[in-house]
Design goal:
This protein is of the alpha/beta class. The chain is built from 14 helices and 19 strands.
Length: 465
């Protein structure tokens, strides 16, 4: 069994600058270039540069109130009109507070919302652009708007009415739901999970402003130690002396095909001349649709993948990405890539139909399977990020393991879809040897077994792993 599987942050959540409420972390840039003679087509596309990539805008936003000022902020929060946050709103506060959306300093005002909706980018004061493809907004209804009246500040509270943050210099504007849905998803068909969860019944107004987050967001679900902020991830990469960081996002259990893609990427980076490329295995930890495997079970499965040696704990950092999931295909995958720049990744692995889903009405994919990787290679504001489209992996029946698909002997390969994988796990059947590590498969079977109806016909409540 491997020694350390997950990275627990040794850095306590605290302010990095005591002088201001909205402050920045110095960028981590090492201006050391290495010139190499290209050896492969892969190498010709990239240049080797030691050090971590700069955050968008050059500085990493940190929106937490300095610790000595928190009690004062709580007293101020109690005197202000308030807006109650939904569970997903709170996840967006978490995302914004830690700088994943740098250089955003809070929920979008109308100008930022429109730039995001129409251009998938934000123009900075110096005229440059950063990518921003999904609106990060806070909806309010008529009664909440009336409660705010003429106040320039509002307190954001959680479901238990505890103050979470103060939104300052606020701007209230209309919530164009249909336009937002059409431009983000490319359709207004009913049945889009994020839309039904957060937009359809949301208020007709949006409120933007600068965030002052009173305390770091915690979920108290046993997984907080795995939610490393961009600052903590950059510190961990520097501690490991990473000269390249390649990120892999997933919202599903890791099978050996995924592992092949990740290990092969590291091999190619070593061939390019990097000495210590580090993998950021970054499962999505915010809202997911009902039929996705819950985060706690996915984290337990990922742990087994490292314990079984499928991925090397010495060159892998496993951390939770706190963003909610839109399932908005090529539009959303830009957000996923942009956020990883702020975490220090300069390579991003992208595969078939990233952030996609089936059409909510018709029996087809909602997005073209290749559009995600094509869009990433052209997206404004992502020019600094090296996009790594991966080859198709499937089960090679001649070798008894996952391998890259060879069209010259297509008959030897078996494609095990997510539907097929779920069906096997639900029926407690084993997949072919070499598809997934035994420990990881056992976790998956245990999860689906927890959903089995009891004798009285009621489905058991899912128990966190």
């Amino acid at each position: 069994m491997a020694s350390t599987v997950f990275i627990q942050s040794p850095f306590p959540p605290k302010s990095l600058n005591k002088s201001t409420n909205t402050h920045f972390v110095r960028s981590f840039k090492l201006p050391v270039s290495i010139s190499l003679k290209p050896r492969t087509a892969f190498q010709k596309r990239f240049s080797v540069r030691a050090g971590l990539i700069e955050p968008d805008g050059g500085k990493l936003v940190d929106l937490h109130v300095p610790e000595p000022e928190r009690e004062l902020k709580k007293r101020e929060a109690a005197s202000l009109p308030w807006v109650k946050l939904t569970r997903i709103d709170l996840q967006w506060v978490h995302v914004l507070s830690e700088g994943w959306a740098s250089p955003l300093t809070g929920f979008m005002r109308e100008s930022e919302f429109l730039q995001t909706l129409h251009f998938n980018s934000l123009r900075l004061d110096d005229g440059s652009f950063v990518n921003m493809s999904v609106p990060i907004v806070l909806a309010i209804d008529d009664s909440q708007k009336e409660r705010i009246v003429e106040s320039n500040k509002v307190t954001l509270v959680d479901s238990d009415d505890n103050p979470v943050a103060i939104l300052t210099n606020i701007e209230i504007y209309q919530h164009p739901k249909e336009e937002r849905i059409a431009r983000t998803w490319g359709t207004t068909a009913p049945g889009l999970p994020y839309v039904e969860e957060t937009i359809t019944n949301a208020g007709n107004w949006l409120i933007g402003g600068d965030l002052e987050v009173i305390e770091p967001i915690k979920y108290h679900d046993g997984l907080d130690r795995f939610r490393l902020s961009p600052v903590e991830l950059r510190q961990e990469f520097e501690r490991r002396k990473a000269d390249a960081v390649f990120a892999f996002q997933l919202r599903n259990p890791v099978h050996n095909g995924h592992a092949l893609l990740m290990t092969d990427t590291r091999r190619r980076l070593l061939q390019m001349g990097y000495k210590n490329p580090i993998l950021l295995l970054h499962p999505l930890g915010g809202y997911t649709k009902a039929d996705d495997v819950p985060l706690s079970w996915r984290m337990k499965q990922h742990e087994k993948v490292l314990e079984d040696g499928v991925l090397d704990p010495e060159t892998t950092v496993v951390s939770i990405f706190p963003s909610p999931m839109h399932y908005a295909g090529p539009t959303e995958v830009q957000w996923h890539a942009k956020a990883r720049i702020n975490a220090g990744a300069n390579f991003y692995i992208v595969g078939r139909d990233p952030a996609g889903m089936g059409h909510p009405i018709e029996k087809r994919d909602l997005y073209d399977a290749d559009h995600g990787k094509k869009v990433l290679s052209m997206a404004p504001g992502l020019e600094r990020l090296n996009i790594l489209p991966f080859r198709v992996a499937a089960y090679d029946q001649t070798q008894g393991k996952m391998a890259f698909f060879d069209p010259t002997r297509a008959q030897d390969f078996l494609f095990i879809s997510g539907t097929k994988m779920r069906s096997l796990a639900k029926n407690k059947e084993n997949p072919p040897d070499g598809f997934m590590c035994p420990g990881g498969w056992k976790v998956l079977v245990e999860y689906y077994d927890s959903l089995t109806p009891s004798e009285n016909g009621r489905v058991h409540e899912v128990v966190p792993a």
